[in-house]
Design brief:
With 380 residues, this protein is an alpha+beta fold. Helices cover 33% and strands 26% of the residues. It has two domains: 4-100, Glutamine synthetase, N-terminal domain (Ubiquitin-like (UB roll)); 111-378, 2-Layer Sandwich (Creatine Kinase, Chain A, domain 2), CATH 3.30.590.10.
Length: 380
Amino acid sequence: MYSKEDVINYIEEENVKFIRLTFFNVYGKQKNISIQPSEIYKAFNQGIVIDGSSVFENEELCDLYLVPDATTMCTVPWRSFDGTVIRMYCDIYTEEGEHFEQDTRYLLKKAILEAKEAGLEVDFGSKFEFYLFHQKEDGNPSQIPLDYAGYMDIAPEDKGEDVRRQICFYMDEMGLGPESSHHECGPGQNEIDFHSSPALIAADEAATFKWVVRTVAQANGLYADFSPKPIEKSPGNSMAVKLTVKNNFESFIAGILYHIEEMTLFLNPVKESYRRFGLQKAPGLMGYSKTDRQQVIRVLPTLPDGRKRIELRSADNMCNPYIAYMLILYAGLAGIQQKMELPDVFNRLPETLSEAKKAAKNSEFIKKHVPEIILETYCK
């Protein structure tokens, strides 16, 4: 991992021209401000000021301060043709020097610390699906998919091979870990999977990944669509989350199942999310199984070292990965601490966004772990 000194030395030695300080709003939408190399000491020691009221849609907010996390430094490969550009994720602070309560990356850090103190070790590895559509002459997306290939087809039917390859190359250059890639079931639909990592690294990878995909797609005259149901009669896009657990496996699963209805608003935050459930291998039931793809949790084969794995299959790419991973950790931890048992009866996942909002608003679990202002924002 990089330290502040490593970053400063890199800036001096590698002809760094711009530094992108990146952060997220409560929905997980990536934001950034660029600074000159001469500002790096100020950024590390004092923070760079931004207008919090504009970013977080709250007129009562004043200035917020971005302090870069040196461990997240990476180059931006497609911007470094006339001098290096680097990017770092940031922690957000108030004028009083306190962590900003709507900084969802910080909320995940808190959850990781609580889980660690309780002896819970979980690795996350997400699988991302997205569609590639041609762009119109004016640069706007069309509804014409890049190809009409099927699951794991190859070129020439699969026309997305080179795009996926470029995405993986960029991710490697940025120090991130794609594991595999292939064509998915839908026309123009693709999937790229990641190795399992600690929760914060995995969430950072998820955020970076969508940025890289959209950038590569646009450079190739394409539009990358991560929405849950881009084509009505074709498979939707999911963000399946692989979870590797060392201890208390069944109680961990039970905790997620017990709280999944309350969490769904944050795993599936838009109306289109609910048009995917129960169709074309997308889950519809709040249960677990090794083979039944209608269940929200699929039990995966145990690893050679004895660690057990599951795949949480309901989340989609519209979620904020920092909130999603935070709630998964807390739910699993609650299952272990309360010694929950796996259920025998499986109810349906919420069928509409309104149902999901109601479940979240009435949940003591959500109120305990999600700041009130974030819950209110999602429930508008």
